[in-house]
Amino acid sequence: MKLCHTLLVIIFAASVVSRAQVIPADASPVGLPVSGTLRYDLRFSQTAEFGGGQNGQEWSFVSGDASYMNTAKRLPFNMQYGGGYGYAWSGTTSPGNLFQHLSLSQGIVGRKWNLTASDNVSYIFETPTTGCSGIPGTGEPIDCSGSTTQPDQTVLSLNSRTLDNFTTIEFGDRFSSAWSLNVGGTFGQLRFIDNNGQDTDTWMTNAGVTRRLNARNSLSGQYSFTRYSYSSSNLASQDSNLQLSFTQDNTAQISFSRQWNRQVRTSVSAGPQWVSSSNNAIEPSSTRISASASVTDQLRFGTAGLSYSHGTTGGSGYMLGAESDIASAYFSRGIGKNLTIGATGSYMRSAALSAYEFIEEQNGKFVLVPVNIAQVTNAKYGGVQATRQLGRSMNVFASYTVADQSSGLPSPFSGSSVTILNGVSQVLAFGIGYSPRETHLKK
Q1: ∠128-249-370 over CA atoms, to 5°?
Q2: Which of 47, 269, 289, 400 qualifies as a cystine partner to 253, CB 3.0-4.6 A?
């Protein structure tokens, strides 16, 4: 269904472009139903993977992306799509070849208030890392604005098809030039298509007040409530004491933001986080720290960013809740008129809130068995890419991606194809792309 929606969006955009470019000589100009900026790219790439259980695997990828942003001040709209198809020529087989990522955002802007609804959905056959769709080596912008990892997938895995969807609604009201209010809510779904991971639903509500101190500085207070609910299909047990249906947290934070100049902006926030669950014997209530920080720099010759967050996450489908540290950085720069380089990297540490592990029973259900130490996964990945323009629309690219993970998590679903990465995995890629100039649509 999501794929159909995506194809409809692309077909509609293509029809708009054709109407904008082709007008019969004997006909009067026809007004376009939309106005804004449309951009699309098509690519073909060849990759080779080494290590991490993927030795000798070779892929051919056909992929593309499209983005559209309108110019309406009162009704701003933004769409971004990336996806494609991969064919494995040799090496370990994969349960999936198709990958998709679509994000939509629609806003309504009043004189002193604004309302935004957005949706972010992806379908992928491994944990997303570099590129907008998350598959390394396809030739997409490798940094993708510095945000490629979903907040609920902090454990790197291979051969695990997932459908991940987040829907968010946010409302903001500016009381005066100094005070503003924001409220919002998010619903997320993580589904494992082959039943080789723990399905998770995420519910979050938040509210906050911001005080503008001066032209550059602002201070805010935020409160949020988050619940991670776990499907009972893989957690059934004859012993009800070993069942856990949800983990939840209440978080209060104080944030400070500063705009140093037109290019550099920083933000830092911290506060207590109260964690509880449906089974105090498995996950006792605790008080923890939630924190985040970020810095972005819009350089004259490129862009750069750095972010860090610490707090509770859903467990990535392999833990019943986790305390995670996530640090990410990205950088891109144009060299001359025809060469662009980009780099990105992330570090993720996830410690299980529960000192239990899944054990499969003969009837296909799973129970929780205590272990001596908390299960911890340390993952890091990075990538670099260079793109060379050939004329107005054609380009060639080459990239290198490496991922390294050490995990104490056993594969909880025996007999399944899921692989939690242990060790180092490397991907070398090169390819060619078609990137026409962006099209400006006018009513």
Answers
A1: 75
A2: 269
Which amino acid is residue 202, in one-letter code?
T
- In terms of phi and psi (left: phi > 0; alpha: psi -120 to 50; beta: otherwise), the region of 336 is left
- 295 C-beta neighbours (distance < 10 Å), count: 17
- Where are the chain's structural domains? 2-441
Task: Return d(Cα 231, Cα 226) in angstroms, integer.
Answer: 16
- According to CATH, the topology of domain 2-441 is Porin (2.40.160)
- Tokens (6 digits) for 382: 């990075």
- Judge contact between 186 and 168, C-beta under 8 A: yes
Determine the pLDDT at residue 223.
97
pLDDT above 70 for 413: no
Place of tokens 């939840």: 248
Q: Is 159 left (phi over 0), alpha (psi -120 to 50) or beta?
A: left
3-state secondary structure of 438: coil
CA separation, residue 244 to residues 32, 228, 251, 284, 328 (Å): 54, 11, 21, 12, 31
Under a CB-based contact definition with an 8 Å cutoff, are residues 265 and 216 in contact?
no
